[in-house]
Request: fold
Amino acid sequence: MTKAIYPGSFDPVHNGHVDIAERAAKLFDELIIGVYEDSPKALTFSTEERVELFRKSVEHLGNVTVTSFRGLVPNVARDKGAKFIVRGLRAGFDFELEFEMALMWRSLAPDIDVVCMMSALEYQFVFSSRIKEVERLGGNIEALVPPQVAAALKAKSSSSG
Ligand code: ADP
Reply:
């Protein structure tokens, strides 16, 4: 029984994240998506909203659960019995950061390995921050996010004026 955790801010989840979750769900018996409560990023969505949006985006996957977490990822992985941490890599953008983070996590928890999955070609340019900016400026982001995320973004930008 192999269990993995896929941690992130997911503010909000987009199709690049969902693609990694779908592919990781085929690799592992059980995948836990961990929504980081204390993300240092300037967040648009609350923890509950981020969890709920990801939950709806993976409800077609039988072996995936979504939960929020606080604290160090390797500790959370260990608490949940996950032996692997999944991360996604876009060409150029993510490597240095993910490499340094994976080495830190491995030094904290040598028994837990980090599995980086390459982003699909069509999602290489997809970033949560860029999606929010494009939506705010009136661009159409429907091809980049699940439908409930497009609706939630629209509601956020109309409520913030
Ligand atoms: P962070 O965890 O740094 O706050 P995110 O929540 O945006 O970042 O992303 C969570 C994970 O998903 C990270 O491993 C990130 O590299 C990966 N990811 C982000 N965007 C994409 C994408 N377009 N394709 C594949 N993986 C991605």
Q: What stands out?
A: The CA atoms of residues 8 and 104 lie 16 Å apart. Residues 8-10, 16-17, 20, 39, 41, 87-88, 90, 94, 119, 123, 126, 128 surround adenosine-5'-diphosphate (CB under 6 Å).
